[in-house]
C-alpha cells in the first residue's frame, strides 16, 4: 500500500508517495537525499537517527512516515542558519566530541532537543531520583537548574557513541547549556 | 517488513470497528515497540489503525480527587506533568527510568502498557517460543533466562513484562478504561496483565479490538510520598532486573497503609499483596520489611540463571521502604 505524505524538512516542503512501510529515516535518506540522520541499529537503540519531529527529538527509524504526515522535521543539516553553525555544532568541534562522526548528527540534534526539554522544566531520572521527590525542585514547582554532568549523561543516554567520545561530548553540551 | 493496510479513524468507535473486521490487525500508538517487532517479523499485522492522535493527550484532575491520563499522552509529557510529580512521584520516576528521551517522546501511555516482553527468544523468529508461536516450546527455560521471571511462571513461559509504568500503576490501584466491540469496560490494572499459564501468547485480558482510551488514578494522599527504584545492568537506558514501586503511610511508627509492587520478576507487574497485609497495622522497621519481603517471595521458583533475583528483590523492597521512612531529603 502506498500513501502520499507531506513533510517540511530543514525548512523546505516536500510531497512524496511512500510505501506505508517507509520510516521517516528511510524517507529522509532514500527519498529526499538528506543523509544527515544516520541508520545505526534501525531498532531505536542507538540514537544515530535522531531528528526533531514537530520540535521534539525522536528515533526516526521507529516512526512510520505515513503516521507523521504533515510533520516539521529538523535534522542536524538544518541546524545551521545563514552559513553559521549552530552553537552545539561549534562546541562539538571545539571539544573534539567525536571520532568517526557517525553518531554525531544524532548526538547534536538530541542535545538540541534535550536542552529544550530541560529548559521546559522536564525532569530526568537524575532529577527525580530521590525518594518522595518527583523532581519538583522544591516548593516553586517544576524547575531544572544547572544541569550536572550526571544529568547530561542521563538525558543523553539514548545516543550511543561506539568511539566512546562521551568524555568530550558532555563538556561540549555543558558549554552550550551553561551559555 | 511485511506489507499492511494503514488506516486512520476519526472516532474511537470508528477505530474499534475497523479493527473488529481485521482479525490480524493492530492499533498503532507511538510505534516504538510495534514497528520494531514488525521489522523483526515478530509482529505481522495486515492492518494498522493509527490511534496516536485519536485518544486524549491530556492529564486531567477528576472530581473525586483522582487523575485521568489520556491514552495518547506521551511518556515524556506524563513524566513531566506537575500533578503527577506532586501526587504520584513514583509514576513519574517509573517513566523516567525507562527507555530514552527520544523513545519517551514518541511512546504513548497506553502503548507503554501493551509493549511485549524483551525475552531474547520472543524477539528472535529463528528460535522456538510459546509466546510468539504457541506449541513450539520455550527456549529460555534451558537457555538464557538471567533477566526473566521468578514468580508465577509456567512450564510454557518465563517471560517478564517490560513496562516500568505498569508497576507503578498496579501499586496505585489504577484502572484502565477501554472501548471495544462489546462496549466500554473498566479494568483494574492489577487484572489487566495475566500470568502465562498454558497460554503465554496472551499478555493481557484485553480482547481483539479493545482500545485503551484512558488510565484513571484514584486519589491516594500518601502516594505523594512514594518511590520507584529500578535495578538494572546499566545506569541508564536498560530494562529492569528488578523494580519496586512503593508508598507507605506511617503514623507514630505504625504502618497505617502501604502499597508495594515488583517489576522484572513476573509475566505481569507483581502487586505484593502478602507483604502489604503483613505490614499493615504493624510497626515500621527493617526487620518487619524484611519478613514481609520474604513472605512475598516465598513462592518464587527461580531458574538456575536468575536465582539472584530473589535476594535482589527482597533487598530492593527493604531499602526502598526504609528510604521512604526517612522522608524527603
From TrEMBL, chain A:
Tagged with keyword rRNA-binding: no
Q: Taking every annotated instance into account, which residue ranges of this chain make up the domain 2Fe-2S ferredoxin-type?
A: 3-79
Residue span of region Disordered = 125-146
Which InterPro entries does its entry note? Answer: 2Fe-2S-bd, 2Fe-2S-bd_dom_sf, 2Fe-2S_ferredoxin-like_sf, 2Fe-2S_ferredoxin-type, 2Fe2S_fd_BS, Aldehyde_Oxdr_Iron-Sulfur, Beta-grasp_dom_sf
Highest taxon, organism lineage: Bacteria
Q: By its UniProt entry, which Pfam families does this protein fall under?
A: Fer2, Fer2_2
Alphabetical UniProt keywords: Iron, Metal-binding, Oxidoreductase
Output the SUPFAM superfamilies linked to this UniProt entry: 2Fe-2S ferredoxin-like, CO dehydrogenase ISP C-domain like
Specify the protein name: 2Fe-2S iron-sulfur cluster binding domain-containing protein
TrEMBL record, chain B:
**PROSITE patterns membership:** FAD_PCMH
What is any Pfam family matched here?
CO_deh_flav_C
Q: Residue ranges of the FAD-binding PCMH-type domain?
A: 1-222
Q: Which InterPro entries does this one have?
A: CO_DH_flav_C, CO_DH_flav_C_dom_sf, Diverse_Substr_Oxidored, FAD-bd_PCMH, FAD-bd_PCMH-like_sf, FAD-bd_PCMH_sub1, FAD-bd_PCMH_sub2, Mopterin_DH_FAD-bd
Identify the keywords attached in UniProt to this record, alphabetized: Oxidoreductase
Q: Can you tell me where the transmembrane regions are?
A: none
Superkingdom to which the source organism belongs: Bacteria
Q: Which PANTHER family match?
A: OXIDOREDUCTASE (PTHR42659:SF1), XANTHINE DEHYDROGENASE SUBUNIT C-RELATED (PTHR42659)
Return the protein name. Answer: Xanthine dehydrogenase family protein subunit M
Task: State the organism of origin.
Answer: Micromonospora tarensis
Q: What is the lineage of its organism?
A: Bacteria, Bacillati, Actinomycetota, Actinomycetes, Micromonosporales
